Amino acid sequence: MKVLNIKSLITIILGSLLLASCTSITAENEKLAIAKLNDRAAAQLPVENMEKGRTYLSVYSHIYTNSQHRIHELTATISLRNVNLEDTIYIAKADFYNTEGQLIKRFLDHAIFIAPMETFEMVIEETDNSGGSGANFIFDWLKNQSSADPLFEGVMISTTGQQGLSFTTQGKRIN
What we know:
The chain is built from one helix and twelve strands, in the order αββββββββββββ. It is α+β, with helices and mostly antiparallel strands.
């Protein structure tokens, strides 16, 4: 039987505590995200004189490193930005798809509003690699006809030790 020295035992205990704290933080973040969405609920969409649009945003849950058999998992921050100084925009749909084009998650149960110059964010955690390397979002939105389109961006990041990588993607209007 192998006997652990005190340093190994402390490392195991601290690692277990860190893992437990990360799990509870993730659950707490999910609760906060749901509350944040509910606070943004649009009571009624003002469809009169509103222009509808649809935007595609590519997102990477992981990328390949060295070969297609070795991946590097990423955290993705999805930013929904209202670039208008005076007009509110409305997001009616935020659907997340995987590499195979299958719907993974509907982020919205109801339409939300984004106030002028405000940014609303969603996070795909590093441990969630369900999207794969070809993940994407489809957003349906409404805006005043004279307003600028909303801006959708993805920021993917990962850090290991002293190394890190990050890159961004921008949405493309498809309708």
